[in-house]
Specification:
This protein has seven helices and seven strands, in the order αβαβββαβααβααβ. Helices cover 37% and strands 18% of the residues. It has one domain: Vaccinia Virus protein VP39 (Rossmann fold, 3-Layer(aba) Sandwich). The chain is α/β, with parallel strands linked by helices. The protein starts with 20 loop residues before the first helix and ends in a 10-residue tail after the last strand. Strand 1, helix 2 and strand 2 form a beta-alpha-beta unit. It has a seven-stranded mixed sheet, sandwiched between helices.
């Protein structure tokens, strides 16, 4: 997923795509959120011949679904700063920074989609403007982002020491995200941001599982990825992290995710971009 963390207190995306656990995270995120994403694509009417830009794709499941839907007369370009987890399968793969670079060739687009991307981008307003400007008149922008501040607990029902530890480590994880410029209340802003950007027919909804096998996989992979950073920042000890991983392995933890808020809007024929 495309990230830009310039201007933050720490440098670099917290969940580096080059780490081995990134593949596990992409698989878990796909299991959790692909059905919701595809439902929104159905809502906006993705069909034959559409030109689509998948921003910060990370993995291949979303652009592959789009490529199948738009068929041979359409075109899908999947972009990311790190494309190591993608391979072309009916769609174009392009290394691209949504903040620093102009939109990729192939537009204007009928659909532009970004999932769990802008919350991590330092200049997210610039990225949003770039996407809106790359839409054709009548084209749809679908943005999906987490809102950890809306539901901050990994174990919403904290009834024992295992759940308390899990939630304490999750607080440390949120602190690391904030240090890198993440907006932990970004998801709830999406409908307003789309209207401010001049889009019409704006709607939104939210989804998060309370417990799921994929939530367990996601939490385990995430903890492994940020372990050293949690310890270095004094937010957890190795013993606490080992205990939490053992609790995950033992089962019985109802692990949730932050709500993922999805918002979509259409670029009208008469269009004027606000200053945002």
């Amino acid at each position: 997923m495309a990230r830009d963390t310039r201007g933050t207190r720490d440098v670099g995306y917290l969940l580096d795509n080059r780490q081995a656990e990134a593949g596990e995270r992409f698989t878990a995120l796909s299991a959790l959120f692909d059905p919701t994403t595809f439902r929104h694509f159905e809502t906006v009417g993705v069909g034959e011949g559409w030109r689509c830009w998948e921003v910060g794709a990370g993995g291949r499941t979303v652009p592959a679904w789009l490529a199948e839907r738009v068929g041979p007369t359409g075109h899908v370009v999947a972009t990311d700063i790190d494309t190591s987890w993608m391979r072309e399968a009916g769609f174009e793969v392009l290394r691209h920074d949504v903040v620093a670079e102009a939109p990729p060739a192939g537009g204007p687009f009928d659909l532009i989609h970004a999932r769990l991307v802008l919350v991590h981008v330092a200049d997210r307003n610039k990225a949003l403007r770039s996407m809106v400007e790359a839409l054709r008149p009548g084209g749809w922008l679908v943005l999906e982002d987490g809102d950890p501040a809306l539901q901050p607990l990994i174990c919403p029902y904290e009834y024992g020491p295992e759940q308390e530890l899990a939630n304490r480590l999750r607080r440390g994880f949120r602190e690391l995200l904030q240090q890198r410029g993440a907006d932990l209340a970004y998801g709830r802003k999406l409908p307003w941001l789309l209207r401010e950007a001049g889009l019409a027919d704006v709607e939104a909804d939210a989804y998060f599982p309370i417990t799921s096998p994929a939530c367990t996989v996601l939490e385990k992979a995430t903890v492994h990825q940020v372990r050293d950073k949690l310890v270095a920042a004094g937010l957890a000890t190795d013993e606490e992290i080992d205990r939490h991983l053992a609790n995950i392995a033992a089962g019985g933890l109802d692990l949730a995710t932050s709500p993922m808020i999805s918002a979509w809007g259409r670029r009208p024929a008469a269009y004027g971009l606000s200053s945002m």
